[in-house]
Design goal:
The protein is of the alpha/beta class and about 325 residues long. It has two domains: about 260 residues, Transposase IS200-like (Alpha-Beta Plaits); about 50 residues, no CATH class. Helices cover about 50% and strands about 10% of the residues. It has 16 helices and seven strands. It has a five-stranded mixed β-sheet, with helices on both faces. Strands 5-6 form a two-stranded parallel ribbon.
């Protein structure tokens, strides 16, 4: 049975979450329909552009994403400290790039009208801004701001009404770096597993392609959370270096696209060795990550801590955690 979102998202446990949205009936509403041959490929670009825009607006950064023909994967990292650093005007301006707000907060934003506002109205507007501040760190609001405009645009293009996405997106809490990095690789390798791309750099509408294109120019994609480097060697960065991650994804992609899928490379990349995951287990994780676990993913100790924190009797995926996150 599906759990309430408030039971699935706890920033005390982790700030990293894997979210999946699927089109209704899993139809090919964002790619080429296999039955009619009609192409909706341009809608994948809609989703990608909207996602990268939201990453610049919310206090939520994008670690990885893949926009597929009938579903979207995104790995998010919530940064509540970033939102706390914003002043009231910054919060309101960010909110107004997404939603209309209230007449009172709109008046507050107009500098020439803010001074004469009665104190009670000003305080009420600032209190409303605090609500917006919380929403700008909320994964559910992020996914709403991603999915609803795409649905409206698609329905307008099709001349119809009704749902475009399944009503509820799926989320998985990523409790440790093993879960985070294996999930990111799973997401980035989606087009290769689906046999619509042969290499990470040709995997359109994915974060791995965006990172590779930027890296070739010596740049970091502004809308994506950075990997650890001399410029980002702190807790705000992803827990490994970009070159190590690219090596691991490239290595995994080659293994997945071999003519003999059962063949496992003898030597695992350094990052997989550091994570303590055998290459056989790594390939299993990156082929079926979202189906191996429930709404929480991590090593067995991480799952047990989460179980205790949430007061749960059991956590789905404990057996797979014991089996897969091991050398």
């Amino acid at each position: 049975m599906a759990q309430p979102r408030r039971n699935q998202v706890s920033l005390q446990e982790t700030r990293y979450y894997h979210c999946i949205s699927r089109c209704v009936r899993r139809s090919f509403l964002c790619g080429t329909d296999l039955y009619t041959g009609k192409s909706y490929e341009h809608r994948r670009l809609w989703v990608e552009k909207r996602l990268l825009f939201l990453a610049k607006t919310f206090a939520i950064s994008v670690c990885a994403y893949a926009v597929m023909s009938n579903h979207t994967h995104v790995v998010l990292c919530v940064d509540p400290e970033q939102a706390e650093d914003w002043d009231t005007m910054t919060v309101l301006k960010r909110w107004y790039t997404l939603f209309s707000g209230t007449p009172l907060t709109q008046r507050y934003c107009q500098t020439d009208e803010r001074e004469p506002m009665p104190k009670a109205e000003r305080l009420k507007a600032e209190l409303q801004a605090e609500t917006y501040r919380q929403r700008l760190t909320d994964i559910s609001w992020f996914m709403r701001a991603l999915n609803e405009p795409i649905a409206r645009m698609a329905n307008r293009e099709d001349g119809c009404t009704g749902r475009f996405w399944e009503g509820r997106f799926k989320s998985q809490a990523l409790l440790d770096e093993q879960a985070l990095l294996s999930c990111m690789a799973y997401v980035d390798l989606n087009p290769i597993r689906a046999d619509i791309a042969k290499t990470p750099e040709t995997s359109e509408h994915t974060s791995i392609r965006l990172r590779i294109k930027a890296a070739l120019k010596g740049l970091q994609p502004f809308a994506l959370k950075p990997f650890r480097s001399s410029e980002h060697d702190n807790e705000a960065a992803l827990p490994c270096h970009l070159n190590d991650y690219l090596e691991l994804v490239e290595h995994t992609g080659r293994a997945l696209s071999m003519d003999k899928p059962g063949r496992i490379p003898e030597q695992a990349p350094a990052l997989a060795q550091r994570l303590g995951i055998s290459m056989a287990n790594w390939l299993t994780l990156t082929q079926g990550f979202e189906y191996q676990f429930g709404c929480r993913v991590g090593t067995l100790p991480s799952l047990r801590r989460s179980q205790s924190h949430a007061g749960l009797i059991r956590i789905r995926g404990s057996g797979n955690a014991r089996r897969l996150f091991a050398a």
